[in-house]
């Protein structure tokens, strides 16, 4: 059995995925309360790129089409793709770094910390925060997102303090335990806060936030998320060799010239920060970061120079379609996107696990 | 198949000519226990030095300290005159390579990718093959040297124990080191694979330090030995001179001796019985 024989060449696969992402975006932009055919979607985008009022002939782009495609749907589609890419890449990095198949981007307590901040705003209102941030310009970032981000950073700091201990090496087992401990503490606090508020509306809003939604994504936050996605793919790809070096464990990595402690700190903090941005804007969308790396490895192998960019594309496509389903399956209300990623992800993961021999 | 002709073992040499590795006064404590206690050894350039001793005598720890992978509380290791603790991780990895016993893979790489890991410390910044122009050729040569070229595209999980250890050896060779450290590399291998592996190691023009459990293999494949017990050096020197009956009785609690093989032009170990622990 050879590894190379059964696979598509990497370049072909990567181009197919890129094409798939572009096509998915074009189709998804047309889906919604009012359907817009793909050629019209392209016309809107082309007009906005400065190619004239009727770039491909036909009728000029109408105001409605422009509003729907460019102002409402494109930020959301872009945001979904960016968050999917961020979560998938971070999941792949953390799975390799901790040598743990169950690692996901929320390993370091980021999501539960974010929910502490979010719940604080939902239950106790945002007045306290508004007074805190009065006068500062935070374009497009809601009080909820800001509080969630601050909560995520606080949880991350706590996990890092516990995990580094006396040695400061961020040993994986210790880090995972620290993350679990802080997560439980945060969850306990949020449960008490929600229940003691005695407000069913608040409980519902907390649940909705926890399952994630792209509904609040506008151009400003979409650009922020896209920046995070590009930045993390580039940054983590620079660490691809060093991540390969962890294949046979910490001692082996060190003997191959990898600065194990510095690499762990750098990658754990960086993944947690970009994940915190994503969670703050869209809520903690589960399963993408856990599942996508497992889906991609059989296709491109375990070498990180191929794995990471492919994970980013696959995560982007998955979340883009999950969000499209979330906003269009039910006519009147939105489904939680986290539920959809789990509905799609679980069966695929189970099939993969059943086929695996080890 | 690999020739199993045993390499000549120089038993009458008076000691290492040039020392490649020189360790002085190494002391390592782990949770209150002294794992290495004032260990000083020299390893001859281009020679194969066996690191012997019972379980828990400190062999693995000493290898890690020699390789600069663990800092001793006290003491210094010099590699050709440079302090290994101050070499810098990448430079050190270009000079010293390590082969562990049965390192478990967390990912499904091909044999060639595993050997390619040895090029990590040689890669410069940049993209693609420009970062390590000779990399592909070095990897191919290393694989040919340990005769695993035919396994290049096989997945790690499909390789046997012996094939995996030869992959690790090729990976270490691809690092182009001067010193090769091996930590019980033949554990879990059958006798044929043990002989094949150590024969390959002996053919390398490198300074080798190999921790071994099997005294017979040490007698056949090592030039010098260092015998540890409870973190102290009990004896060091050429095999024939070091492995005396009283040392074997003291350290291993066996009645045994190293003597000329009745049929082959090399030494071997003959044991009578074990001794009751005092």
TrEMBL record, chain A:
Keywords: Cell membrane, Membrane, Transmembrane, Transmembrane helix, Transport. Pfam families: FecCD. SUPFAM superfamilies: ABC transporter involved in vitamin B12 uptake, BtuC. Gene3D superfamilies: ABC transporter involved in vitamin B12 uptake, BtuC (1.10.3470.10). Its main location: membrane. The keyword Transmembrane applies. The chain crosses the membrane at residues 77-94, 106-129, 141-163, 175-197, 265-295, 335-354. It is found in: Cell membrane. It is a multi-pass membrane protein. Belongs to the binding-protein-dependent transport system permease family. FecCD subfamily. This is Iron chelate uptake ABC transporter family permease subunit.
From TrEMBL, chain B:
The keyword Translocase applies. GO terms for molecular function: ATP binding. PROSITE patterns: ABC_TRANSPORTER_2 (PS50893). Pfam families: ABC_tran. Keywords: ATP-binding, Nucleotide-binding, Translocase, Transport. InterPro entries: AAA+_ATPase, ABC_transporter-like_ATP-bd, P-loop_NTPase. Signal peptide: none annotated. SUPFAM superfamilies: P-loop containing nucleoside triphosphate hydrolases. CDD domains: ABC_Iron-Siderophores_B12_Hemin. The keyword rRNA-binding does not apply. Residues 21-255 form the ABC transporter domain. It comes from the Bacteria. PANTHER family: HEMIN IMPORT ATP-BINDING PROTEIN HMUV. This is ABC transporter ATP-binding protein. It comes from Nocardioides dubius. The lineage of its organism: Bacteria, Bacillati, Actinomycetota, Actinomycetes, Propionibacteriales.
